[in-house]
Design goal:
- The complex is a heterotrimer of chains A (341), B (336) and C (264).
- By secondary structure, chain A is mainly α.
- Chain A has a single domain (43-331), classed as ABC transporter involved in vitamin B12 uptake, BtuC (Orthogonal Bundle), CATH 1.10.3470.
- Chain A contains 14 helices and two strands.
- In chain A, α3 (45-76) packs antiparallel against α10.
- Chain B is mainly α and 336 residues long.
- In chain B, β3 (274-277) and β4 form a beta hairpin.
- In chain B, α2 runs antiparallel to α12 and α7 packs antiparallel against α10 (201-227).
- Chain C is of the alpha/beta class and 264 residues long.
- Chain C has helices at 42-50, 72-78, 95-106, 116-125, 141-155, 171-186, 198-204, 222-227, 229-244, and strands at 3-13, 16-27, 31-35, 57-62, 65-66, 80-82, 159-163, 190-194, 207-212, 215-220.
- In chain C, the strands form two sheets. Chain C has a six-stranded mixed β-sheet, sandwiched between helices. Chain C has a four-stranded antiparallel β-sheet with strand order 2-1-4-5, covered by helices on one side.
- In chain C, α4 (116-125) packs across α5 (141-155) and α5 (141-155) runs parallel beside α6 (171-186).
- Classes of the chains: A mainly alpha (341), B mainly alpha (336), C alpha/beta (264).
- Chain B binds chain C through residues 179, 182-183, 185-186, 188-190, 192-202, 321, 324-326, 328-329, and chain C through 50-52, 71-73, 76-77, 81-82, 84, 88-93, 96-98, 100-102, 104-106, 112-113, 116-117, 120, 133, 151, 155.
Chain lengths: 341, 336, 264
Amino acid sequence: MVPLWYFTPNLDRWYWAGGTGVLSAVELYGLFAITQPDNLCVTNAGYVANQASNGLIIGSIYALTAVGLTLIYSVQGIVSFAHGQSYMIGGYASYYFLQLFTDLNPIVGVPVAGLVTMLIGFAFERLFLRPMHLGRIERAGEYAILITFGFGFFLQYTALAIVGPFSQKTDTYLESGSLHLGPLNLIPNRLVAAAVGMVLIGILLYFINHTWTGKALRAVSMDKQAAAVTGINPLTMNTLAFGIGTMLAGMSGAALIPVFTWVPWVGMLASTRSYVIIVLGGLGSIPGALAGGLIIGLVEALGAGCYPDPSRGAAYKTAFGLILFALTLLLRPTGLFGRES
Amino acid sequence: MKHRIDSRWIAVAVLVTLLVLTPLYLKRSPYQMAVLTGAFFYAILASSWALLAGIAGQFSFAHMAFVGIGAYTAGLLGRDLGTTPLVGILAGTLMAGLVGLIIGLLCLRLKAAYLALFTIAFSEILRIVIVTEFEFTEGSNGLQLSKLWEGVTGTQEYYVTLALLLGSMALMYWLAGSRFGLFVRSMREDEEAASAMGVNVVRYKVMIFVITSLIVGLAGSVFYHQVGIITPNTMEILQMSMVIAMAVIGGMESLLGAAIGAFLSRFGLEMLREINILGFHLELGAWRYAAFGLLLIFTLRFAQNGLLYPIIDRLFKRRAREETVAKRVQETEVES
Amino acid sequence: MIELDIRDVYKSFGGIQALNGVSFSIRGNELIGLIGPNGAGKTTLTNVLDGVYKSTSGQVWFNGQRIDGLPPYEIARRGIGRTFQVTRAFRRMTVLENMLVPAMALHPTARQRDFHDKAMEVLEFLTIKHLAHDYARSLSGGQQKLLELGRLLMLDPDIIILDEPFAGVHPKLMETTYEYIKLVHEQGKAFIIISHDMDSIFTLSKRLLVLNFGELIADGDPKTVKEDPAVIEAYLGEEEEEEEGPAVIPAGRLVISEEEGSNA
């Protein structure tokens, strides 16, 4: 007795998947509106707009973290299970830097964190991933999962040991309260973080598309052997990709520490969320990671904001994204823009 | 048919005897006995994960979730319906098996990293629900469970857990050596080719999930009756990481390696809480785990089969390679 | 008697039509060569027969039962076995264990020792008995191909599909493969052999099926097929294309912009 769905095909084209997604979202909203007519999300458009915009703002930072992860996947072909820890370390790097140079705006912490995490990424890749690419490791697939996982484990507990189970927070970017734009109630602090995220993604895109190194990275991601034949060293590109990926994660952490309180296990959530985003967007696709980040930001914000029981809604925030994630894995593992493997 | 008595049976017998006799020495330190009991529990978790991931190739991160399902089912039934621990344990085991069945079915088409991610998602969702619905589950405070029976002692708990460990190891060894083991290994190697060779990949993939979730569901419901309380932290990814680390360090493809690895790791980590040398007192705290993580990475890199692999290979596998089906057949011919 | 009927099978992947209404039948222990230019759909057809792919439309009937849509293990159980273009032995299992998998799969109540002798016999015939307890990954490419042939025999299928059995095999192993095919054929099994090795195909097979762009363009005895103008054009036409056409660019994995084939 084989379950029917085992043999049903995946949703084939991205517009079918995207279309189905939008359609189900609309149906869900319709159902929601009928059963919860008093809910703020149904009666107050301004509220919805507010939630949505806040979601998009946070989503752009999520996107930054995820872009790093998807970049690593596209060049190396592996999912790094240590990504959330890079994010966490980036935040702490910025924090400690700012403790040393107390008068600086937290935004300076971003490149500092980027440097630190990038170096860590380079070191790890060179020492533990390169042997795999050189064919010196048996069962490479398992190894890739476990070694990045182990690295995350190590980073997590090292951070916990150094920092202790306490929370830290840096100063905010800007002092002012909230910004009122029509019905929208935005927090400038978060806007700055989002702006940082967008700028960095923009720089990355420029780098990937218009610099020689960036194009070399793309070449390796498409066809390692072909790239090697043209004189590009895939091993160097692997290390570079990993370093850039961890750098982006670190920088997203540094961008957010002025906004959120930081604890050593803040990376766990970021990890999970990044997986969700890259699968949703399609493994290896940067526009996918961007779209995915924004979608998840939206889903979390609207889910938390519209759930009938506000405290539960907040607690279930992550769960909404996870459910979407599970559905994507089951129905369309290639995500929105991923390549059919 | 005669049973061959060879070194591996002897080694196992010695080990088991040691473990059975240990409480006699530890009567005065209930703490150490409790640590050992906990180590047995982790040995069950690690070896069953080794069966699931190392031998059958299913990298599931939902293992701890099944432990939690077992324990929470038992706890909730005990609290709301007043069931005895035995009933709770039975229910917890079955519930874990049922959810294992569902997860197995859902994971049929998922490969490697996707399977890992999906099971992470499942674990997280479950954990979040338990934390949030605290009115029902006591959330982060944890749900209390009664003791296994009135007046149960630490020594008795020790033996119960040891029995569970020995029982599950025996079961898993039997499975691994049977056609079940043959099939799941072929599926690990190449699922499509296995299917083309007639292996019912659907059935066996689901079976391996059900069996391992039954085992850890049972272990979880029993163990947490001993601990007295189950919290959602058990289902955190960090806890899962710990089990995986132990299995990998011990030897992921060897049930015995994973079990011993987990046992030693757990025991070692507990004993290393603080060091008192020459008047120096050092609280190691999280550093022990950081070092453990480092050990994990280096083991993976330089001793991918696990640190215990060379020992196990010498003691057990060498024998097995000689004692092939051929020899066994020859013997039966000689005897008859 | 063995009966296989393929009726109007279509198979498409996204925009690509891999099989375009293929129909043919097999009766008894035929020895059929399946040929065609690269990309004609030979392996796709095998995958559909084997259950790895589900056809977009059409039916496959085997020994009076409809088998299209069944999973590969069901089809294997009913008597269709295949090898793969790139050998797919179970690498971390021994050669003997590789042989035992299909045997055990087919006989739910048997024990491993029941098939030990048969497995060894087959291995001996294939000249790799001495490797029985070695891990499959330590075998050479040619030896792994032989292992796949042995594995198939343990499955005792009625129809055997060999996907490129002669590719990259050195002459000595080639002989063993020939002998294997002849012997097993005499025992009453049907063969479908996919190969680019025209010499072997023309020597061995009594009937040729020619695929081109997913269509069956010829079906008959080797002599007739060889002189069929459609067949000649298919092969010659391909050669011309190879000289003129642009190099094929693989779809990008790092998708940066919409234009770069982001479609899954």
